[in-house]
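EI: anyone free to look at a 225-residue chain?
SC: sure, send it
EI:
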Amino acid sequence: MMKKVFFLVFVFWGISCFSQKDSLQLGDRYLEDQLYMNISYNVLTKQPSTVGSSGFSYGVSAGYIKDIPLNRRGNYAFGVGLGYNYDSFNHGLRLVENNGGISFQVDSQSTSNVLRLHNIELPIQFRWRTSDAVTYSFWRVYAGMVVRYNFYNGFTNTLNGTTTRLTNVDNYNKWQTALTLSAGYGTFNFYVSYGISPMFTSGATLNGEAINSKILKIGLSFYLL
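SC: here you go
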């Protein structure tokens, strides 16, 4: 999986070096309609007090953003888009199916405990940049939010050589919102996303404690005109 991610990054970087320059030289009026790609290291925050730290987790998202300029120069704008997001978490919760329901346990012995998520995402941004019609490398700060709809979640646990899988768990919060910030110069931009919605519904508890886990993403954003 990681080899595919690095290959996509290389392709996006290579194409952007050529396409951005040509696009911005078409005339005095221009738009920043963009394909985007985010690669992140994922962290689960606000975990239950008895749950240890998670292992290596990552996320990848890509999509298209429609640019809506707010002034003549075009350096202030709104961005509204549509994309796809994949996340993988090595986490410290073990889900057990009991009588058609789900209970949560602390996981300390499993050899593998992975959560995989497939989401549709809707990014909304307020955009500031130093670009103009003939400048293809520029500073940018894009701040906003993203709404994600989870259409598949899969929990895979391996304990004592036995693997169990649970998919599309009802306790998982299908609609989640996160605050986002992307800032940088040229192709490579710092990216952070912090979930303001919990991962699980209000009925998810661990030993009587509500599970309020949220997703923090830190990584890089790539933009392609």
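EI: Helices lie at 2-23.
SC: 👍
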